[in-house]
Structure formats: structure tokens, C-alpha cells
Specification:
The structure holds 2 protein chains of 2 kinds.
Chain A lengths: L1 H8 L28 E2 L4 H4 L28 E9 L10 E6 L24 E5 L5 E7 L4 E3 L5 E3 L2 E6 L8 E6 L10 H4 L4 H5 L4 E2 L10 E4 L2 E2 L13
Parallel strand pairs in A: 2-11, 2-12
Antiparallel strand pairs in A: 2-5, 3-4, 3-8, 6-7, 8-9, 10-11
Chain B lengths: L15 H4 L15 E9 L9 E6 L26 E5 L5 E7 L4 E2 L5 E2 L2 E8 L6 E6 L4 H5 L10 H4 L5 E2 L4 E2 L2 E2 L9 E2 L1
Parallel strand pairs in B: 1-10, 1-11
Antiparallel strand pairs in B: 1-4, 2-3, 2-7, 5-6, 7-8, 9-10
The chains are: A mainly beta, B mainly beta.
Chain lengths: 238, 188
Amino acid sequence: MAQRIREEAAGHRRGDDPPYLHPDYVATRFRAPKKPLIILPRTLSDLTGPAYGNGSIGELDDDLTRQHSGDPLGERIIVTGRVTDGDGRPVRNSLIEIWQANAAGRYTHQNDQHPAPLDPNFSGAGRCLTDDEGRYRFVTVKPGAYPWKNHNNAWRPAHIHLSLFGEAFRSRLITQMYFPGDPLFGQDPIFQSVRDEKARQRMISTFDLQTTEAEWALGYRFDIVLEGKDATPMENHG
Amino acid sequence: MSPEPTPSQTIGPFFHDALIDEHRSELVSPDDPEAIRIVGTVYDGAGEVVPDAMVEIWQANKAGRYNHPADDRDEVPLDEGFSGFGRAGTDANGGFSFLTVKPGAVPGQDGRVQAPHVMVSVFARGLLKRLVSRIYFPDEEEANAVDPVLSSIEDRAFRETLIACDEGDALRFDIHLQGDGQTVFFGF
């Protein structure tokens, strides 16, 4: 708690982010820094950022169900939404990378030892660029829940990892998208590390009948808000 | 009313296939006569290496220009093909390595100049949000002494965690997530 207060007192602007130290999530105990953060002034070093990925998106990168010769097992879904900054402006032409477990709750990763089957038709990695209105769209399968060793009988709720750059170094975000009504939320220390109930709700996608395609796939909507550019002028940068 | 930001969550341990690609750690060609190598090891609070972290860097080019529309100083040249962004996963020994060029000095607030530096983001299982740090250069003693960010850190030993060590063929920037030798991390 003391650390949390220090971070807030230090002016950490993303106030709904989880703290570094969340002891229920055991791995934070030896990885959370304990010295106070030094607050960076706004300079070109962080008001710029990588325009990473332009021109390097493959045709099938946004459709995780078509990256192999056959169809992956599981429930086909469409995940779509808008990326905006803190002022509500669309984040255009910006890279989103995603990764997830397959429908059985297994990642292709060599360190994933969960005894659930791999799917030869599913790698679980995708990428796309947002369009001029900040919209993105992926086709994939709904990931399964999976066990991990954080505590006895610990299970991660179904989730998709998302990595976003936004328009500046400051706006970089890695987060997880969850599915509505998941019974595993209450026991998951990663989900619960976000203290504010309303902020936790902003990590949960909503089922969307308009996105759903008849006879084909359920649709989920997930809007993402990155840090805004803020009104602080940059006139002193030169 | 402004929309509220989406909270951060950990990168977890299974990001490699989606995010890591070896050539992304080389910002310049190994044939570039000005290429420098920056290496480091990520350690946790128990002094154990962190084999499942991802380190990203963002920097200006050797003239001190960022390849981004917000840096509109056309009098400072851009280098074609130099994006300024790099990404590396740590290996089984917690190590990471980048091939890049030393950035030039860049503007700070209120007309001040910032010493050459590289912005760093660290992501890992057990980090619920990224850590932000900076790499400064050991051969820039004068510029480092008046750098507005470095000089705002009073504790000398703490401040010096931001300055890479010259190992001859590479610069070393180890990252200590926690403990007595913890690296300086920044907030916004």
C-alpha cells in the first residue's frame, strides 16, 4: 500500500493501472521495484515513439483461423473495436499485436506444460494496423482457460493479450482482453490487480450481435483507450 | 468527459512467437562503421536472472533526431532506414543485446539539452505494467553532469544505474528490477 501511495503521490498519470507490487500475484514479489519512480518531464524523447510495423503486415496476420492448412478447433470469434487516445481521438495506422492460448487453453510456447492438446491449425499470434478511425478487427477462436501455479488450483480466465504502441513512447500499452461473465475473475490475481471495479470492467469485452456474422462467428467488441497527448504545449522542444 | 484509459496487464510468459523476432534487435547493419552493441542482463530482487523479459528501446539517430512527426526539426537530418526502435527477449541467462548507433543529444524542457540517451521499456511476467528506464553513455561525462533528468536524481549511486559501462566491445546496461542496486525507473 505504501508503494501504491508513493506512485500516486509521484504523479503517476495512469491511475487505474495495477500497482507493481500485488502480492497475491506471486511473481510481483521479486520483480516489483521498491524505490520510488522518478517523474520524467515531457520531452521529445517520450512524445515521439516508434511507428512500428508499417508495411510489414501480412495478409493473413489478422485472421488467426487461416494461418494453417485447416480450420482450428474451437468457437470462431471476431474481435473488433476502436483505439482512441485519452482525448477521444482515434489512434490511426497504429500496430496492434495479439497472442493467446488455443481453444483448449494451451499456448504453442515451449514452456507451456499444461496437458491440454496443441492444435496444429492454430498458432495464436496476430497483428494488424488500426484504420483511419482507429478501428481494428481480428478473426480468431475463443481461447480456453488454463491452470497456472500461482496458488493452489489457480486458473487464468480466458483472455487475449494485446500490445499497442499508440502515437508516442508514453502511450505504449500491453494489456489483456477478457470475456463477459467469466466465473474465474474472482480468483484471478492478475485481473484483480486492477483495484477499481469500473477499471476492471474496461478490460472485459462485450458480446456484440452487430459484429456477429450469421452462420459464421460470434462478435466481441473491445475498445481501447491509450494515454492522451494532453494539453501540455511543446513549444519549448526546440 | 475524457474516456478512461484501459488498464495495463502483464505480458505473461508466452509472448515470444507473437512479439520476438531476432532481427528486431538490430537497428543498424553489423557493417555500419558506427554500430555499437548494447548488452545487459535483467535481474530480479533475489538476484536471479529474468529469462522471460522483453526489452524495447527507442532513440534518436546519431544527429539527435527522432524518426517521428512530433520531431519536426527539419534542420536536423533523418537517416533513411533508421527507425530508432528495437526489441529483444531475454535469453535463458537473462541477457539481451541490441546493435544500434549512439544517439545525438536531444532537446529537453525549457530550451535545455538532454545528454544522449536511449529510452527503455521492460516487460515481464510479474510486471503488471512496463518499467521505463533510460540508458546514458559513459563517454558523455560533461553532458551527463548537466542533463536535466540525471541531475534531478540526488542519490549518486542510484543515478549511476542509468549510465552504461564500457566493456570495450560493448556497452553494458544491466537492469535490476528490485533490491539495493535497483535501476532507476521512471513514471510520467
